[in-house]
Amino acid sequence: MESRVKDLSLAEKGREQLYWAERNMPVLLEIRRRFEREKPLAGQTVAACLHVTKETGVLVRTLAAGGARVVVIPSNPLSTQDEVAAALAQEGIHVYAWRGMSERDYYNAIGFALSFQPTVTLDDGADLTSTIHKLRHGIRDKTLDYVMETAGSVDAEKLVAGLRGGTEETTTGVLRLRALKSAGKLLYPIIAVNESYTKYLFDNRYGTGQSTWDGVLRATNLLIAGKNVVVAGYGWVGRGIAMRARGLGARRVIVVEVDPVRALEAVFDGFEVMPMDEAAKVGDIFITATGNIRAINLGHIFKMKDGAVLANAGHFNVEIDVAGLERVAVAKRQIRQYLEEYTLPNGRRVYLIGEGRLVNLVAAEGHPSEVMDLSFANQALAAEYVVKNKLAIDVYKLPDELDREVARLKLKTMGIEIEELTEEQRQYLTSWELGT
């Protein structure tokens, strides 16, 4: 099977979307031009488990320009842009993705990618990476049964032996990789792209900050001004969401945090901080960004106002207790395309956006192309790095010089020049003799 997408007739529309993304991703295009000349990925098979969006399409085209055979599968069942998947499939990229996949479909897609015996993996949430590890370590479960339906006769030992390395895009995924490393079970080297400055300072903060609210607004069309907004988690994603809530005129922005340093930072940034038990009583809109399970549990939900809106900006749909909500609700109905109303036994109603999945990609289009230009430039350079360098098995940060190169290229495309150190200043910074 070369590809499986929803409808190949959508390809022309997908090419238009890719054109628009490329107009706003000049750094990645600059890298593509070099890749076309140098072919640093020649002979490699890259399996990309990413949100299949127009921005991902620009990355995939860049990897293919570098000489790679590319297989694209989704990292979320509801985030695929079907027109982009169709366009990529028509260009000879191997795609197994469509919007609205079942759990079985989703893991069939991972099996499809593994059937190509990839030598490099690009991941967003570590589902592809963890599946490879389950397969090699002999950990069988239902999802692995689904994987094997499309993986063919893939040999786990041979697969791992052929892997040069991988990358990981998200905070959640990096946590899973660190857990594998701590358990002594990590099987191949991974670049934690999420730890690059030009990724998390911009994608996580500015990209998610804007796109999360884009998803909330498309799903609800609510006025944010005057509302009490509760943000669970004050990492870089939470910071961006809270910042944009204030900019939209929220009356109160309340942060819920377990880390005392981050909580203190939120206070110094001008936000209220309190436990979720207290925030649940006053919030109008709740957004989770913790990377952990049940940041909002049933106890919290029962304390909420009639009409409270719940959304999740974390990678997995575990941060809001959706299963518990489904179990106790006395009624449920769909109000808008991505908005469901649950009536609780106490008569109050709460509204869940996008099944509790990643709100910016379920109810909107994900991050703006301009910010994904940075993230996917890191992905492309990371793929090149793991191919060119024989790395020991570990979780790595992309070298700082590559991080700075991405920033330099972005500034150049924006027409911005920066200062340079004089020789005297360089000597001062590298000398111990000079002082006051």
UniProtKB/TrEMBL annotation:
Its EC number is 3.13.2.1. Pathway: Amino-acid biosynthesis; L-homocysteine biosynthesis; L-homocysteine from S-adenosyl-L-homocysteine: step 1/1. Substrate binds at residues 53, 124, 169, 199, 203. It is an enzyme of class 3 (hydrolase). Keywords: Cytoplasm, Hydrolase, NAD, One-carbon metabolism. InterPro entries: Adenosylhomocyst_ase-like_sf (IPR042172), Adenosylhomocysteinase-like (IPR000043), Ado_hCys_hydrolase_NAD-bd (IPR015878), NAD(P)-bd_dom_sf (IPR036291), S-Ado-L-homoCys_hydrolase_CS (IPR020082). It catalyses: S-adenosyl-L-homocysteine + H2O = L-homocysteine + adenosine. One of its GO terms (molecular function) is adenosylhomocysteinase activity. One of its GO terms (biological process) is one-carbon metabolic process. The keyword Cytoplasm applies. It is found in: Cytoplasm. Pfam families: AdoHcyase, AdoHcyase_NAD. Binds 1 NAD(+) per subunit. NAD(+) binds at residues 170-172, 204, 233-240, 257, 292, 313-315, 360, 367. Signal peptide: none annotated. GO terms for cellular component: cytosol. The keyword Hydrolase applies. Residues 204-366 form the S-adenosyl-L-homocysteine hydrolase NAD binding domain. It comes from the Archaea. Its cofactor is NAD(+). Belongs to the adenosylhomocysteinase family. PANTHER family: ADENOSYLHOMOCYSTEINASE. May play a key role in the regulation of the intracellular concentration of adenosylhomocysteine. This is Adenosylhomocysteinase. The gene is ahcY.
